[in-house]
Amino acid sequence: DSGVTQTPKHLITATGQRVTLRCSPRSGDLSVYWYQQSLDQGLQFLIQYYNGEERAKGNILERFSAQQFPDLHSELNLSSLELGDSALYFCASSVGSGGGTGELFFGEGSRLTVL
Amino acid sequence: AQSVTQLGSHVSVSEGALVLLRCNYSSSVPPYLFWYVQYPNQGLQLLLKYTTGATLVKGINGFEAEFKKSETSFHLTKPSAHMSDAAEYFCAVSVPGGYQKVTFGTGTKLQVIP
């Protein structure tokens, strides 16, 4: 058990809909990372937050947004869903400050299926 | 900026044979290096990491990796492959300080043939 909790584990929805994925980081970790993993594109970095502020942005679509709340949990919002958004979405956390090494602790992922 | 290159998206070995997964990195400062493993339908978990000190790092399940600065490499090895080693392996790099941006390689799927 990594200590990172993601909900829901599975989600099936239709094209055009909007979903929210939730992540609770490991106790004490300030950084949260979101990744998308699909068969054709592999593991793609989406976005990183540190203590509530956006710190790095990767290949995140404009239809996607994220935020990190004061209690450090994070949500990834996916809107106007398309078939190609079907993927595993991982959240990871790390200490996030200069004292850490960047070691990431991953949740078990949220599997999104868009029909 | 940092980057990671994993050579070979798929590697097949026979059970009992040597496992060698290649990783080369690029970093402007001494990096931290990681190998993660992902079993089917699971999240990534840390296999081993190099931060400072001894350049030969031992991890879980009999894996080890050696940091070679002169070659900018961090290859993962295991003397004898087991069927349970079949998984996808990711090399990653981060740099000390800052907000710890972590860069992953594209992954190598290891197949173990009985």
Helical element count of chain A?
A: 0
Low-confidence stretches of chain B: none
Helix content of chain A: under 10%
Shape field of chain B? globular
Proportion of strand residues of chain B: over 45%
Model regions low in confidence, pLDDT < 50 over at least 5 residues of chain A:
none
Instruction: Give the mean pLDDT of chain B.
Output: 93
Report the sheet with the most strands of chain B, covering strand number, pairing sense and barrel closure.
Answer: 6 strands, mixed
Count of β-strands of chain A: 11
Number of distinct helices of chain B = 0
The largest sheet of chain A, given as strand count, sense and whether it forms a barrel, is: 7 strands, mixed
Rounded Rg of chain A: 13 Å
Distance between the ends of chain B: 41 Å
What is the percentage of strand-forming residues of chain A? over 45%
**Radius of gyration over C-alpha positions of chain B, nearest whole angstrom:** 14 Å
- Average pLDDT confidence of chain A is 92
Write structural notes for this entry.
- The complex is a heterodimer of chains A (115) and B (114).
- Chain A has 115 residues and is an all-beta fold.
- Chain A has no helices and 11 strands.
- Chain A has strands at 5-7, 10-13, 19-24, 31-38, 42-50, 53-57, 64-68, 74-78, 87-94, 105-106, 110-114.
- In chain A, the strands form 2 sheets. In chain A, strands 2, 4, 5, 6, 9, 10 and 11 form a 7-stranded mixed beta sheet that branches. Chain A has a 4-stranded antiparallel beta sheet with strand order 1-3-8-7, with no helix packed on it.
- Chain A is globular, with a radius of gyration of 13 Å.
- Helices cover 0% and strands 54% of the residues of chain B.
- Chain B has no helices and 11 strands.
- In chain B, the strands form 2 sheets. In chain B, strands 2, 4, 5, 9, 10 and 11 form a 6-stranded mixed beta sheet that branches. Chain B has a 5-stranded antiparallel beta sheet with strand order 1-3-8-7-6, with no helix packed on it.
- The model of chain B has no long low-confidence stretch (mean pLDDT 93).
- The interface between A and B is medium-sized, with 28 and 25 residues.
